[in-house]
Amino acid sequence: MSEVYRSTGALSFKGGEFVLEGKPLRIYSGTMHYFRVVPQYWRDRFRKMRACGLNTVETYVPWNLHEEYPGEFNFTGMLDVRAFVQQAGEEGLHVIFRPGPYICAEWDWGGLPSWLLKDPHMKVRSNYPPYLEAVKRFLTELIPRIVDLQRINGGPIIAVQVENEFGSYSNEVDHLHAIREILLNTGIKELLLTSENIFGLKRAPFYQYALPTANFPSMEDGSKLFQMIREWSPEFPLMVMEFWPGWFDHWGQPHKGLDIPAFEACLSGVLDAGGSFNMYMFHGGTNFGFMAGANYFEGSHYKPDVTSYDYDAPLSEAGDITPKYLRAREIILEKGLKPQGIGSLPDIPPDLPKKRYGEIAVTEYIDFKTILSLITPITSTDPVLMEHLDYHQSYGQCFGFISYQAEVQAGADLSFTQIPTDRAQVLVNGEEKAVLDWLSKDKTINVGQVPDGSTLDILVENHGRVNYIEYGSNRLNEERKGICGSVKFNEKEIKHWKIFPLDFKPKFLDRVRESKDWKTVANGLKGPLIARATLQMDSAPCDTFLDMKGWNKGIVFLNNMNLGRYWKIGPTRTLYIPAPLLKEGLNEILIFELHESHCSVNFIDSPLLGEKVVTEKVDTACYPTEG
């Protein structure tokens, strides 16, 4: 057998067991992403983890939020990763740190920043020099912020992951070496690890340089992975880095869940095998803003993820205790802690209060023409993709919507070289004529006879870049959004466009508020439009849920915070609002509705995530593993 990886950090291993500073350690971990949970709630979630018997928390790091544009770094508020790690340590938890740079995570483009796609030759997750240069700049900014929080320096970080599920994407092992070198050169000394399914482990073995850990949905799969790891070395401890207690949801599909007996069997199986685990997710949180990702596989179609990342996890989206949590607590105590002489656990912290604030009237709106008047358009002969726009120092538009406008002569037939990605709303003189999306087949539509000088608007929504693809696909390098190719009207190519980036940044929202063209709402209105309502709070806020019944599709802002997407096709109908996003006094609600608007919104005290379809095994069909 060839030489295998040895750790020189505070956490090491020997004889198939983890050893922390000379003492045996079984890792009982849960995933919680700081960027999906408001900072005011981190400690509540940490304490609930401790009360469940966990001793570790694991988190990814989203490059695309920390460096939304090159060299513009943000580590504040929900992105204060250092504060998250410090608080975890203060609450008695170790930390497994997974900095990517690719994280998957059902997150837009797997956490990669969209400006990479400005390069037409980009090859992400490879040793393509411009990609590696960008990775090095980011990690060189990130790692020094947490390097002193490693256990060897007295902090809580005990392990750091090299890339993520790399063998499921590529066999270019040299890239793992490059990422490892950057981590080492920026000061990482703790245990390095990788995480993979069985096919990824075979395809890109890296066990001489990092501890291999397993991702699986059941012990049937896990036993094979554990066996492979032990064949590489009996010294390696067994750890499932992603034990999936639930699953995530796609728009237009049922709300998914894993039944408790199947969950019990897998958790018990890992503990009975002497293994360590990380539940992905233990607490899912929320895909706020435009950050929900998508999946795509050959022979299938694009599948965007919903705003809620509840995941059917032990802690709900709002951090509430679930029956799955209570069962996990019992199993961890009986099978994991009592054999170590630990006979009890801390009391479970109470759930945070929820409140029903009732129905609030929408009082005013501005129409689509007014919305576009608040944006300085970019003129172009041809349509331009978001990532190629001469916008934000020529680095393009990252998220949101983009509208293409042209004046057309009399006719009826509109045709595209390629169906716009991901969803296009076609309007003529402000009236909706058609909607195209990832399921559309016909590239030509009839908008009805229109007169000379008509205004054509094609409003394209970036519904989330694909975060996971199957092995051998180049799709990750093709995730540019907007209109690709040419557009013809009555068989004549349109060569005069005004392009409006609608990324809903704070400065744009300020212009929306200051507009003099707000109109009073009388009846239901046709979008696209921005509607406004006000919630008056006369006491300290509580968590609540915004019920979007009666609305069609769009996004909601509360006091400048993008709560995420809603869509009547479901499965979810509510948007979670943590109390810290509210304030005593007036709270402003702005709704960008694409189609038709209701005249009110309703604040309720429990989520509507859709009727749950519970299975005995999570639906990993959207994660093919053997290429």
Structural write-up:
- It is a single chain.
- This protein has 627 residues and is α/β, with parallel strands linked by helices.
- It has three domains: 11-317 and 319-353 and 616-622, TIM Barrel, CATH 3.20.20; 358-365 and 515-608, Sandwich (Jelly Rolls), CATH 2.60.120; 375-502, Galactose-binding domain-like (Jelly Rolls, Sandwich).
- 19% of the residues lie in helices and 29% in strands.
- It is built from eleven helices and 35 strands.
- Strands 15, 27, 28, 29, 30, 31, 32, 33 and 34 form a nine-stranded antiparallel beta sheet that branches.
- Strand 1 (11-14) and strand 2 (17-20) form a beta hairpin.
- Helix 4 packs parallel to helix 5 (173-185) and helix 8 runs parallel beside helix 9 (323-337).
- The chain is globular.
- 50% of the residues are buried.
- The mean pLDDT is 96.
Q: Specify the CATH class of the largest domain.
A: Alpha Beta
Helical percentage: 10-25%
Indicate how many domains the architecture comprises: 3
How many beta-strand runs?
35
The value of Rg in angstroms is 25 Å
How many H/I helical runs? 11
Give the integer mean of the pLDDT values: 96
Q: Largest sheet at a glance? A: 9 strands, antiparallel
